[in-house]
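Reminder to self: C-alpha cells first, then the designed residues, so the page reads top to bottom the way the pipeline ran.
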C-alpha cells in the first residue's frame, strides 16, 4: 500500500485513523456499528444506508457533499451541524474566517440538509461573543457549545417542536478552505486591525531577512512616538523597538509585535531583538 499511496496522503490517513480511535472505542462500548466509507454517495454506500431504514441522519464536519439521493433516505431528514451563524459563513472553515474577518460574535447552527451547501432551514442555533478569541480558543468554545446545540436538536424532534427558520439567502456569505496565501500579511494592503485578526488565526506570517516569520501575538495603535512631524515611512518598516514590542508601520496605523516564531524558535519581542540584532529601519516583507 505504501507503494500505491503518496507518503503525504498516507500520513494523513494514519492521522485520521488515530483520531478516530476514541470514537471507535466509545461506539463499541455502546454496541453502535462504525463504518468507514470511502465514498458516501456510492451505490454500495447508499444501499447499505437504505437497509437500515433510518429515522435521521446527522452530519458534523463530514468531508463530502451529500447527494440528494442520500439526504432523502431517512424518514425525518438529514441534519448538519455547522460552526457559524448561518446564513453567514457558509462553506468551509467558517470558524477561521469569522476571526479573520473581525466578527464580534459567532455560533453553531443545526439545519436540515439540502442539495445546496448550508442552505437548509435552521433547526437551532447557539450564539457567543468571539472578539477576543484566537483560533484555538474559538475551537475549544465550539466543542463546549456542541452539546448545547445537540440538546436543542433533540428537543426539536422529541418534543414535536416543528418550527424551523427559513434562511435569508440575501445575507449569505460563502468561504472555501483557507490556504497559505490567506495567512500572508501584506503590509501595503492590510490595516493594523486586519493584521491583528490574521494573527488571531495563529498562522499569519511575513518575511524578515528573506526568512519566514510567524507573528504569534501583537496589538495595534494609530500612532507611534517616532512617526511625528509628518515623517514619511514605507509600510512594513520597523519604526521603533521597545521593551515589549517590535513596532511596524502598516497601511493604516501601527502594529506592535510582542511574540514571534522565527527560524523554528518561539520568542518574545526582546528575545527576538537581542538574538537577531534587529534594527529600526529594517523591513518586514
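Designed residues (285 positions):
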Amino acid at each position: 500500500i505504501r507503494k500505491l499511496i503518496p507518503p503525504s496522503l498516507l500520513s494523513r490517513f494514519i492521522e485520521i485513523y488515530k483520531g478516530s480511535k476514541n470514537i471507535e472505542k466509545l461506539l463499541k462500548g455502546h454496541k453502535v456499528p462504525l463504518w468507514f466509507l470511502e465514498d458516501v454517495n456510492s451505490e454500495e454506500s447508499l444501499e447499505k444506508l437504505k437497509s437500515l431504514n433510518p429515522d435521521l441522519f446527522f452530519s458534523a464536519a463530514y468531508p463530502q457533499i451529500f447527494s440528494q439521493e442520500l439526504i432523502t433516505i431517512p424518514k425525518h431528514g438529514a441534519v448538519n451541524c455547522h460552526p457559524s451563524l448561518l446564513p453567514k459563513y457558509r462553506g468551509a472553515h467558517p470558524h477561521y474566517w469569522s476571526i479573520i474577518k473581525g466578527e464580534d460574535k459567532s455560533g453553531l447552527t443545526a439545519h436540515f440538509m439540502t442539495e445546496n451547501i448550508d442552505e437548509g432551514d435552521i433547526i437551532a442555533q447557539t450564539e457567543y461573543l468571539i472578539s477576543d478569541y484566537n483560533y484555538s480558543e474559538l475551537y475549544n468554545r465550539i466543542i463546549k457549545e456542541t452539546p448545547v446545540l445537540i440538546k436543542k436538536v433533540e428537543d426539536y424532534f422529541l418534543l414535536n417542536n416543528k418550527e424551523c427558520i427559513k434562511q435569508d439567502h440575501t445575507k449569505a456569505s460563502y468561504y472555501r478552505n483557507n490556504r497559505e496565501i490567506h495567512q500572508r500579511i501584506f503590509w501595503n494592503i492590510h490595516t493594523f486591525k486586519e493584521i491583528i485578526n490574521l494573527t488571531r488565526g495563529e498562522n499569519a506570517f511575513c518575511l524578515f531577512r528573506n526568512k519566514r516569520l510567524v507573528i504569534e501575538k501583537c496589538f495595534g495603535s494609530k500612532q507611534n512616538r517616532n512617526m511625528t512631524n509628518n515623517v514619511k515611512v514605507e509600510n512594513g518598516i520597523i519604526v521603533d523597538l521597545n521593551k515589549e514590542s517590535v513596532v511596524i508601520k502598516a497601511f493604516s496605523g501601527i502594529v506592535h509585535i510582542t511574540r514571534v516564531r522565527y527560524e523554528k524558535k518561539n520568542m518574545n519581542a526582546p528575545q527576538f531583538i537581542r538574538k537577531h540584532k534587529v534594527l529600526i529601519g529594517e523591513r518586514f516583507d
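The first strand starts at residue 57 and ends at 60.
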